[in-house]
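Hey team,

Sharing the separase run so nobody has to redo it. Sequence (653 residues) first:
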Amino acid sequence: MFWSNISAITRRGRVSHIRDSAGSLALIRTFQTSLGKPGSTGHSLIANLLGNVDESCSNSVSLTRFRSLTDASTSITLRREILEAIQNKFPIFHLSDDLQWPRITNNGSPLAHSPERNSKRLQSVYESDLEESGNNDTSLKRYWEHIREKYHSQVLDAKSLLHSKADHLPRHWTVVNIFVTEDKNTLFVTRQRARHEPLIFSLPLQGHREGGDDSHLGFSDALDELKEIVRLSDEGTKSAVNVKIDDKKARAAWWTDRAALDKRLQELLESIEFCWLGAFKTALSQPVNMSTDVLLRLRSRLDKIFKRSLVSHDKKRKTSTRLNDALLECFSMLSPKCRDEELEDFLYFILDLYQLHGTPVAIAEVDVDQVVLDLRSVLEEHATSTEVMSIQDSHLFLVLDKNVQGIPWESIPVLRGQSVSRIPSIDFLLDRMDLVKWHRTQSSDASPSHTDDQVIDRSPVDPRSTYYVLNPSGDLAGTEKRFKAWVNDMRAVGWEGVVGKPPSEQQLLDALLRKDLVIYFGHGGAEQYVRSHKIRHLPRCAATMLWGCSSGALKEMGEFDRIGTPYNYMLAGCPTLVANLWDVTDRDIDKFSQGVFDQIHLTPDDIRRHERESRDASKDTSIITAVAKAREHCKLKYLTGAAPVVYGIPFYL
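Structure output:
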């Protein structure tokens, strides 16, 4: 009954109900675990929530089902909106009589209308136009038809949620969902990789550690602090115009205030990682190649500590509790320099694991301080004696619940400097991979030196096919001065654009449709120059960099899903969008963007070399890696450096 109702409301119900159902299901499984009643279908799920152990294959069913529901619940509105957007990309998608009421089946699936009498004639006219424009448009229409049919026929029921979509991803990609419950007291973090067992952690946001107040950070407190920092930053940015250049004291005071806000934001992000994630931050770590022997040695050392220090020695009772390999590998990434409280998180996790599987633990007799020292010693030995190789081109995709989308997760310590981008859901990620395959079929870009994963793990971008908009409002003189000579030089290799004047809406739309890369240096996300629905209805969209203030922010809509410029580009098929979460100062963000351009070799000489020489894909730099490294180019490494984020998949230059 539960799954049949879920299937119905995902079709035509309120989005908030779907999101609440996912959270409620997770909490129920958590409570069952704490009572020692896993239930017939949730055993593996519960084990992964509070104490992962090795289980039979059938137990992974509920885990996969819950993870799939959590992922889907973050983008229900966008799933519905993409159907409307596709209808307007090609007229052939809505040639039926629009005066007829829409019809649906019992499960909410739409039924097709009978075509209007003159629709066949209109269809033949449209198809003839496509043939005249070439096979490129025809095949692009087929791609969007495929996406349209996929979402039209998609039903989120118990059966469809059984299949893990992560297995279709490249091996070096990781997808992490971050989801908060309705009462804002519990954070769920799920991790999945191709051909790896998924992990789900249920993390209380307050009251899970003993000790001082520095271990507690409420969800609302964190968001309020972030909003206050951004508000004060905005006020400081506006007041800068009143600071005279020759007034050294006023300038010094202004920079002192900015530096204090920068430090305040850094400390907030460190607190979010420490208080909310703790030892479980390793779920967000880069994947590594770790041999079975390495894991066995680490398991043996840890078992000695726990059996010696934690478990009551009852000769009549033998414990078969064994930490799951996926969790063991996850915790092996914990730094030996981490805080004591994080090692205590790991300790109490293991305590719960033993107790929940029937092994008595004399908690009052546990010498926590000694065990923490022993764990740190094991981690130090593991780190120094083991050569762990990071997986090349590893990349993390964040699927964020609407409640946590305003947080710059990319700048918490464990993710700072790593290749991280945001996606609405795994389905949208798979759509982008299909779009990459379509691009490859239209060009000869897939060289024989590329592996299969390399062919689909990046969006093809020709750096010569670029359009720029520099200082369209005319009031960003510093930005124009910094980049005008550069964009003029780039015209020699094929770039086009406008400087010092606003583009027409049609100019921007043509650039997004026909170019591979669009770079915008102006206020906001260019919303004042092109309407959002015009972007949504594009059949193709270039990779885009919007360097304006709050260009990547998604507006809060209460209990409804957020809306904003990034989603308009996602619905247009944009593979990669670089944008800012909040307002930034022009000079500092100019340093950031210059750092990005330097990292991806956007110079005339490099582009000419790109034309002449055969490329070695392994030496290319990802735009997302370039953004991560450019954070350190700013004077305010958090107040400005944490603002830019990336939506979508990487492209490499």
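Residues 38-59, 121-134 have pLDDT under 50 and may be disordered.

Ping me if you want the raw files.
A.
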